[in-house]
Amino acid sequence: MDRIYKIAVSFITGFGPVNIKKAIAYIGSVEAFFTEKKQNLLKIPGIGQAFIQKLDRETALLQAEEELKFIEQNEIQIAFYLDADYPKRLLNCSDSPCTLYYKGNADFNASRNISIVGTRNASDYGKEQCTKLVKDLSEKSIKSTIISGLAYGIDICAHKAAMQYQLPTIAAIGHGFQQMYPAQHRNYAEEIIHKGGAIVSEFTSNSKFDPKNFVRRNRIIAGMSDATIVIESARKGGSLVTADIANSYNRDVFAFPGRVSDKYSEGCNFLIKTNQAHLIENIADLEYILGWDDQAPKTKEIQTKLFVELTKEEEKIISALRDTGKTPIDLICLKSSFPMSKVSSLLLKLEFDGMVKSHPGKIYSLNS
User: For the Smf/DprA SLOG domain, which residue ranges apply (predicted)?
Assistant: First the structure.
């Protein structure tokens, strides 16, 4: 029965994942969200009378029963945000889906996840850069999972290169599992699953293709990744939306530069020019920024200084890290009540002093 409630959340309209998570936290369980009296739901911060009047939990539960039949018939799995198999990187994104539907066996919580996105009108140059980057990633001792959106152009190039060089790959789609868009990529989707990857969606089975859904899909691509790499993009398009979302999640963004006269380099050049993305020319740039140069000679770690005089602001940062262990920078900001600019500066100084260690995805911990 627990699965029914987790699925039924997907059919609640007019109340996004942020508020649903708040409600579940307040009530204590997803089941209680569907069984609690409506008048008691009004006590939950963020829930008003207008929502209560529109809330149709009975219909949502009936729809969930039909969805469960489809899921079981088609070997689809679900990951609820309170489940152990839910992508942990998405837990740091407040607007991440409550429930994900997926096919395949990819490890969502692998140590290294890279998303690669770009134009549907990829040039030979863009495809070459994409394939070379994936090939170079495959030669590292720690393998990366490649995440993209199964679309034409750079997306499908990234998936194909990952399969060619035996890296797991995850495709996030913007519709339900009753269809596949584009239809020409259905065979690639099946191959991804067969080769140990996964297809993932937040949409229920009968959700149709709708361009508006792809913004929601893009936040999954960005949120599941340690870094997003843009390879060719026009000044406007889904790739820049994904880059913007990744930046809002405090994830690193990279962009390959191109000629100023090329339409599908305008977006990448703009991201670099406005400091919204690191310039990347090869895998060395990626490894340097993310600290992933695992094949370089190991240097002796800086020893934590035993007698360092800390300011009150630095003590707040240390206290936040001591309480939570590995912590994303946005949570450090929340716990310390400092703005992002101040936290970044303090973390950098503490890292130089040997007190703090940085990890991929702008995550920090105390240096043991």
Answer: 78-286
Q: How far is residue 230's CA from residue 89's CA, in Å, rounded to a whole number? A: 20
User: Please, are residues 359 and 365 in contact by the beta-carbon 8 Å criterion?
Assistant: yes
Helices (H), the chain: 2-8, 17-27, 30-35, 38-41, 49-54, 57-73, 88-91, 124-138, 154-164, 186-194, 213-223, 238-248, 266-273, 283-290, 312-324, 329-336, 340-352
Cα separation, 224 vs 186, whole angstroms: 22
pLDDT digits (tens, 9 = 90+) for 160-170: 999 999 999 99
Q: Which of 205, 203, 187, 185 is nearest to 195 (CA)?
A: 187
For the stretch 229-249, pLDDT in tens is: 999 999 998 999 999 999 999
Which parts of the chain register pLDDT below 50?
Answer: 295-307
Predicted local confidence at residue 210, as pLDDT? 85
> Around Cβ 25, how many Cβ atoms within 10 Å?
11
pTM of the model: 0.79
- Domains of the chain, first to last: 1-73 (1.10.150.20), 113-290 (3.40.50.450), 312-366 (1.10.10.10)
Nearest CA-CA partner of 18 in 96, 134, 76, 130:
96
- CA–CA dist 112, 292 (Å, integer): 9
With contact defined as beta carbons under 8 Å apart, do 305 and 339 qualify? no
Structure tokens that stand for 251 in this block: 């994830």
